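Inverse folding, one chain.
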């Protein structure tokens, strides 16, 4: 496992994200499958991963509880916990932090983040007083390193980055967003400020793992031994300002493959980067809806619609035609696009600003 120096410690270049843990599909509420998830955590730890990321809202609040239980068997000084405060979930930051310590079964958090800072929430965080409070906790040793995660415009990101001396910042960074989104400018803004970057969505919620056939053919012709996710991870780990790359690994096969990728620190060559850009150009024809399957849209959906799964079908319909709609019947969901009431709760939580109700309406019409 590649390790990179961070202040006085050393962090694994690959971090274990705990937002997409395996779940019990046939149980109401889809709770975390503790046995399978613990197997993944144990494999991660045994193979050199020492950065474990979660959040107050992941898996409906169960992710922190699971991680606290799963890590209890290990020496607390041998790994680093990262979790987050989301003002929209519960604005009482003092109560939230106390609850997180209890959930994680620890008396301090290594990496603590102000969560999902965006143009609509940045001012709320600033006015709430939470940043000063977290700085007090850092002075007390209850937080070791303080940072924030962002789904914001470049101006908002820069403004928030300049509020205080952050230890790190977490952004969405992958080759698609680098070439066709704002990730490159965000990276450069943080690089200019010499702020280490923690990366989320390096494979864009799995979208860069299942590319179009044309894009996959381009990559396979260049490096037949590399799978699509490996290309995505190798791109991000070639960027020197990147500290930890988070991957929400939900199967043992995924973590085994990713760990192999992180045994080698060699960056992509210029020729390989050119190939990746060519494949990305081909892939843009497939990306109709930029959903990363973060599931922020699901928790407050009154109709209990598995929105990311239906958005994936919508993408496939736009590329492959009506046959893709046959997959709707296979989606395990209490609600369907026909049940959408257009309340907009999903859109309000979407980091990608996807207009979900309009897409649900279109899918509902296609289902008739």
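Residues assigned per position:
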């Amino acid at each position: 496992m590649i390790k990179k120096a961070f202040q006085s410690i050393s962090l694994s270049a690959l971090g274990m994200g705990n937002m997409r843990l395996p779940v019990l599909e046939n149980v109401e509420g889809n709770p975390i499958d503790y046995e399978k998830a613990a197997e993944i955590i144990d494999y991660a730890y045994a193979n050199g991963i020492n950065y474990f990321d979660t959040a107050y809202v992941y898996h409906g609040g169960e992710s922190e509880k699971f991680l606290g239980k799963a890590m209890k068997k290990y020496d607390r000084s041998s790994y680093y916990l990262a979790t987050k405060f989301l003002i929209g979930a519960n604005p009482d930051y003092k109560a939230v932090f106390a609850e997180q310590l209890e959930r994680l079964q620890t008396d301090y958090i290594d990496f603590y983040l102000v969560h999902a800072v965006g143009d609509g929430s940045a001012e709320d965080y600033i006015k709430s007083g939470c940043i000063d409070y977290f700085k007090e906790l850092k002075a007390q040793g209850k937080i070791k390193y303080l940072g924030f995660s962002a789904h914001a415009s470049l101006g908002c990101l820069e403004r928030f980055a300049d509020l205080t001396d952050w230890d790190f910042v977490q952004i969405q960074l992958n080759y698609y967003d680098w070439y066709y989104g704002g990730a490159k400018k965000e990276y450069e803004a943080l690089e200019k400020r010499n702020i280490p970057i923690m990366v989320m969505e390096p494979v864009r919620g799995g979208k860069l793992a299942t590319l179009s056939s044309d894009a996959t053919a381009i990559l396979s012709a260049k490096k037949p031994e590399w799978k699509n996710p490996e290309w995505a991870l190798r791109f991000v780990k070639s960027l020197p300002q990147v500290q930890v790359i988070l991957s929400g690994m939900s199967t043992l096969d995924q973590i085994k493959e990713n760990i192999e990728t992180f045994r080698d620190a060699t960056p992509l060559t210029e020729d390989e980067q050119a190939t990746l850009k060519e494949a990305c150009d081909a892939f843009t024809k497939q990306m109709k809806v930029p959903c990363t399957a973060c599931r922020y849209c699901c928790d407050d959906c009154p109709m209990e619609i598995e929105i990311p799964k239906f958005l994936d079908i919508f993408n496939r319909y736009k590329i492959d035609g009506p046959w893709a709609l046959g997959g709707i019947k296979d989606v395990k969901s209490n609600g369907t696009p026909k049940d959408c009431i257009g309340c907009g709760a999903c859109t309000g939580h979407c980091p990608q600003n996807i207009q979900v109700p309009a897409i649900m309406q279109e899918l509902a019409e296609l289902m008739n």
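The chain has 15 helices and ten strands. The two ends are 51 Å apart (CA to CA).
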